[in-house]
Amino acid sequence: MIVAENLVKRYGPVEAVKGVNFKVDKGEVVGFLGPNGAGKTTIMRILTTFLPPTSGKAFVAGYDCTEEALEVRRRIGYLPENPPLYLDMTTRDYLHFMGEIKGLKGKKLNEAVDIAAEKTKIADNMDKQIGHLSKGYRQRVGLAQAILHNPPLLILDEPTIGLDPTQVVEFRQLIKELAGESTILLSTHILPEASLLSDRVLIIHKGNILAEDTPEELAKKVKGTQTLKVAVGGANDEAVEKALSELEGVQAVIPEGEGKFRVEISKEEDIRGEIARLVVWRDWNLLELTPVGVTLEDIFMSLVTEEEV
Question: pTM for the full model?
Answer without folding.
Answer: 0.74
